[in-house]
Amino acid sequence: MTCETSANLKRAGARYTRAMTAAALAYVAIVAIAVYTLDRFSPPHWTVIVLSLLPMAPALLMLRAYLVFTRSMDEFQRRLQNEALIVACAVTVFGSFAYGFLEEWAEFPHLPLIWVLPAFCMVFGVAHIVIRLRYK
User: Fold this and answer.
1) Cα(99)–Cα(18) distance, rounded to whole angstroms?
2) Under a CB-based contact definition with an 8 Å cutoff, are residues 57 and 34 in contact?
């Protein structure tokens, strides 16, 4: 990796960190305001729907930050990201599919869908570490 490439990646990493931090702070603020509003007031149903979907905006900003950062990576780093994404998708999709059968047929407790994205992110992080270690 050349010094110029390394400097570009550092700048991209700094932009990624700023964008992800801003989106994460917006997410926390929106969730806190929505929970406060739903707990303290009895808003009309359309307001509940809007408040329920509002956290998607900063979540999509997080996705955008990740995509912009990924585009700044070299081919090898993108390959590692893609492999981790494939593993995370497979584990999350087939895990939730299997758990759905366990809920329906084996009377396992219901898990809300809100936990699918955090599970995916966690599996992605672990998969990325394992895949990166394979190449060292």
Assistant:
1) 36
2) no
Range of 124's domain? 74-136
Residue 13 one-letter amino acid: G
135 contacts: CB under 8 Å, gap ≥ 6: 80
pLDDT tens for 22-51 read: 999 999 999 999 999 999 999 999 999 999
Total-model pTM: 0.84
- What is the predicted pLDDT for the residue at 135? 87
Share of the chain above pLDDT 70, in %: 97
Per-position DSSP letters for 77-127, written without gaps between them: HHHHHHHHHHHHHHHHHHHHHHHHHHHHHS-PPP--GGGHHHHHHHHHHHH
Question: What 3-state class would DSSP assign to 48?
Answer: helix
Among the listed residues 29, 91, 93, 37, the one whose alpha carbon sits nearest the alpha carbon of residue 55: 29
Tell me how many domains the chain contains: 2
Verify that 96 and 132 share a domain, yes or no. yes
The rounded distance, in Å, linking the Cα atoms of 124 and 130 is: 10
Query: For residue 85, with 0-12 CB atoms within 10 Å meaning exposed, 13-18 middle and 19 or more buried, which class applies?
Result: middle
- Whether 68 and 101 map to the same domain: the answer is no
